């Protein structure tokens, strides 16, 4: 019985620590970065004032912290705003929708490995809430539920703009889920594994998927097969990253909530904390998305170049602190990737809706599909004879050509009979 | 009307692939970011930037010394070199004021006053700064050159009553203005 209680306590501590101490604070921090970084790009200053108002307590100077307290002020403002429910909404769904967007995003946190296992008093504990053997599948299954939140928000608001936003978002998220799922199949083929923790462990020992420059902890050039596999891995990375942008409704694909044409999209009718929940869900999805990209392609918590074994063995007395260092590395990578998200948002102009759909269905879907075969061929090559490899390569090239030709032909519009 | 047929520009392969343009865009935004962090943004110097972007950070830095001569700030009443109130409460400014911000209550100058021959001065002179639109018509219409738009722009208050400038406040902002109208002068 006490063992069970200790188990439960450990799980509870992990849930609270990893969700509410590591991931959730990243949401306001990324909002802050978004505002400061966009300001810097646009030659402005951004929020740099809100700090600790020491002058209210009789001190001489306020403490600014570069405005890092701004998100707290924003949150407080949203709490204190009037929570207005319009009379024309379908109340039950209207209330349910914000929760349905946030909760899936936060649930997916539980399979992300945040660091290598830590050992306290001889007890080894993995830094992941649920060490599932179906990691990426679980993430896709749960995170696609957030479509319901957005769709219900659009429909239950019972007004035009949110409805268009909701419909757009549904179509977009469902379309990009396909290329999202297909694009990581090569990665899963390569690792032969669906457990995210073991995938990261493998990358720490044998080189990140996109940086395979060490093997068994020794720095060395990759062998032929790994080097060749870098090509499908990179294609996967690009498709996966861009699909994550589309899944999180981020800027180049933010048609569900474009301010210019849809006022605010699906959350037009929401105010106060309900709006904040949508906002939070969007940023939480962004954090989880980048966590997934880092875990699959960029080595998760590992420092790389054979340094991970050394870090793992660092000890203070009985306490192995390597896992905490890895946690720090993971968060640093996460913040770097979030900055990349923001840079993209303020760089790339928005797509038209038909271009968005075409990108998803005509380009990424096909590219991901061909990529699966390419990866399979490279992985299977050592066990096959040269003739079979050659035939496979020729078939693949022919297939690619055919797909490109079909895409091109479908582009051609019928000539008008009269001008 | 003639029909003008526009040809869509033909894109070459590089332009169609779109990635080149993306990378170009990344470089553009990053150069802006780096320049703005170093305080070298375009126009940062002429706009007296604070060192971050082109923005002048307000309470610490002010634009005051760059005001043009024609800047129109808060309207104010002035006294002349002998300390006489210039305003004779003719109420022209009250009549011309488009948003009706000015309210004057004329008062008589007692006969034992050295300026008794001027006959009138305002007993009360209120300008509601919430209504004032800084158009400068009061200055233009004043026959005695008693009201001027000064360069003050930080007019704040915690309640509506604070935003009404009374006579005392107006003379305080306005100060003394010498040598324009001399018709009441003994020396003339």
Short summary:
The complex is a heterodimer of chains A (419) and B (188). Chain A contains 16 helices and 6 strands.
Task: Report on the architecture of this protein.
The complex is a heterodimer of chains A (419) and B (188). Chain A has helices at 2-23, 26-41, 70-80, 91-107, 135-143, 146-156, 160-183, 185-191, 196-206, 224-247, 259-262, 272-297, 308-312, 322-345, 353-380, 386-411, and strands at residues 118-120, 123-125, 214-215, 218-219, 315-316, 319-320. With 419 residues, chain A is mostly helical. Chain A has one domain. Chain A is globular and about 80 Å long. The mean pLDDT of chain A is 83. With 188 residues, chain B is an alpha+beta fold. The N and C termini of chain B lie far apart (72 Å). Chain A binds chain B through residues 37, 39-45, 48, 343, 346-348, and chain B through 22, 25-26, 28-30, 32-33, 35-37, 41-42, 44, 50, 52-55, 57.
Instruction: Sketch the major β-sheet of chain B.
Output: 3 strands, antiparallel
Structural domain tally of chain B: 2
Please give the alpha-carbon distance between the first and last residues of chain A.
84 Å
Structural class of chain B: alpha+beta
- What about the largest sheet of chain A? 2 strands, antiparallel
Structural topology:
The complex is a heterodimer of chains A (419) and B (188).
Chain A lengths: L1 H22 L2 H16 L28 H11 L10 H17 L10 E3 L2 E3 L9 H9 L2 H11 L3 H24 L1 H7 L4 H11 L7 E2 L2 E2 L4 H24 L11 H4 L9 H26 L10 H5 L2 E2 L2 E2 L1 H24 L7 H28 L5 H26 L8
Chain B lengths: L12 H5 L1 H19 L37 E3 L14 H5 L5 E7 L11 E9 L8 H5 L5 E3 L14 E2 L1 H8 L14
Antiparallel strand pairs in B: 1-4, 2-3, 3-5
């Amino acid at each position: 019985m006490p063992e069970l209680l200790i188990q439960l306590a450990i799980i509870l501590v992990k849930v609270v620590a990893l969700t509410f101490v590591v991931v959730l604070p990243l949401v306001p921090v990324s909002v802050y970065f978004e505002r400061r970084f966009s300001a810097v790009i646009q030659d402005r200053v951004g929020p740099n004032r809100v700090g600790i108002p020491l002058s209210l307590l009789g001190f001489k100077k306020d403490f600014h912290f570069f405005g890092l307290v701004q998100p707290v002020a924003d949150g407080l403002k949203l709490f204190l705003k009037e929570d207005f429910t319009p009379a024309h909404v379908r109340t039950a769904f209207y209330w349910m929708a914000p929760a349905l967007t946030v909760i899936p995003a936060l649930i997916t946190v539980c399979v992300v490995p945040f660091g290598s296992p830590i050992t306290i008093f001889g007890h080894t504990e993995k830094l992941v809430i649920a060490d599932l053997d179906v990691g990426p599948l679980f993430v896709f299954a749960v995170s696609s539920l957030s479509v319901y939140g957005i769709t219900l928000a659009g429909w239950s608001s019972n007004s035009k703009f949110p409805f268009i936003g909701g419909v757009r978002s549904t179509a977009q998220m469902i379309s990009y889920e396909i290329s999202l799922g297909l694009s990581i199949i090569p990665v899963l083929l390569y690792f032969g594994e669906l457990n995210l923790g073991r995938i990261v462990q493998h990358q720490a020992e044998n080189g990140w998927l996109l940086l395979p420059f060490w093997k068994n902890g020794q720095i060395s050039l990759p062998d032929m097969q790994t080097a060749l596999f870098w090509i499908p891995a990179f294609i996967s990375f690009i498709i996966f990253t861009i699909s994550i942008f589309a899944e999180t409704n981020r800027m180049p694909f933010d048609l569900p909530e474009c301010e210019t044409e849809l006022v605010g999209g699906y959350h037009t009718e929401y105010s106060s904390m309900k709006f904040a929940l949508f906002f939070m869900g969007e940023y939480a999805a962004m954090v989880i998305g980048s966590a997934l990209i880092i875990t699959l392609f960029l080595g998760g918590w590992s420092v790389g170049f054979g340094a991970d074994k050394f870090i793992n063995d660092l000890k203070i007395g009985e306490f192995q602190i390597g896992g905490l260092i890895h946690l720090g590395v993971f968060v640093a990578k996460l913040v770097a990737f979030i900055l990349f998200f923001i840079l993209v948002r303020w760089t790339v102009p928005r797509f038209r809706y038909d271009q968005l759909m075409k990108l998803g269905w005509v380009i990424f879907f096909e590219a991901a599909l061909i990529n699966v075969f390419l990866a399979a061929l490279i992985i299977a090559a050592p066990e096959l004879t040269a003739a079979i490899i050659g035939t496979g390569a020729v078939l693949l090239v022919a297939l690619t050509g055919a797909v490109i030709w079909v895409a091109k032909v479908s582009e051609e519009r019928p000539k008008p009979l009269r001008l | 009307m003639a029909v003008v047929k526009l040809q869509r520009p033909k894109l070459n392969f590089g332009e169609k692939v779109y990635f080149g343009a993306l990378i170009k865009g990344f470089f553009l935004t990053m150069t802006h970011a780096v320049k703005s962090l170093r305080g070298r943004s375009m126009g940062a110097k002429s706009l007296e930037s604070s060192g971050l972007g082109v923005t002048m950070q307000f309470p610490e830095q002010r634009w005051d010394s760059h005001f043009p001569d024609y800047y129109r700030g808060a309207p104010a009443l002035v006294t002349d070199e002998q300390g006489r109130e210039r305003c004779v409460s003719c109420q022209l400014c009250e009549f011309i004021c488009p948003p009706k911000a000015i309210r004057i209550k004329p008062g008589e100058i007692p006969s034992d006053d050295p300026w008794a021959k001027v006959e009138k001065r305002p007993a009360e002179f209120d300008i509601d700064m919430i209504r004032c639109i800084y158009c400068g018509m009061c200055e233009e219409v004043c026959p005695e050159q008693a009201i001027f738009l000064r360069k003050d722009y930080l007019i704040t208050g915690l309640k509506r009553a604070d935003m009404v400038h009374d006579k005392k406040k107006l003379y305080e902002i306005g100060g003394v203005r010498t040598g324009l109208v001399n018709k009441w002068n003994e020396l003339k």
